[in-house]
Amino acid sequence: MTSRFARATARANRVFMDRLSDGLCTYHPANGPDVPDVPYQFDSTFEAFDENGMGRRVRNVLLPVAMVGQFDHQRSEVTLNGKRWLCAGMLEDDGAFVRIEVQ
Hints:
Blueprint: H1 4-20, E1 23-28, E2 35-49, E3 55-64, H2 65-68, E4 77-80, E5 83-93, E6 97-102
Antiparallel strand pairs: 1-2, 1-4, 2-3, 3-6, 4-5, 5-6
């Protein structure tokens, strides 16, 4: 049985994604079946920094880990509004949501 905190966090994440998502996408993992109807947030103003501290602006999508799992995001693809984006790598993963750079 899960804790009250885990249930409350899961419920808050569901509400967050229902109210604040940009829509639904299809996630095409490199090593598994397609995952349809994944809520996402698209951001084209995120700044990523390399090992030298140089920043660059990247396009990315924020996806719930519970739906996309721990797949190899490097070779995955995401279909947003009929356009297929190649996943260039993971930017952030807090355990609940994963932010993936797309090209």
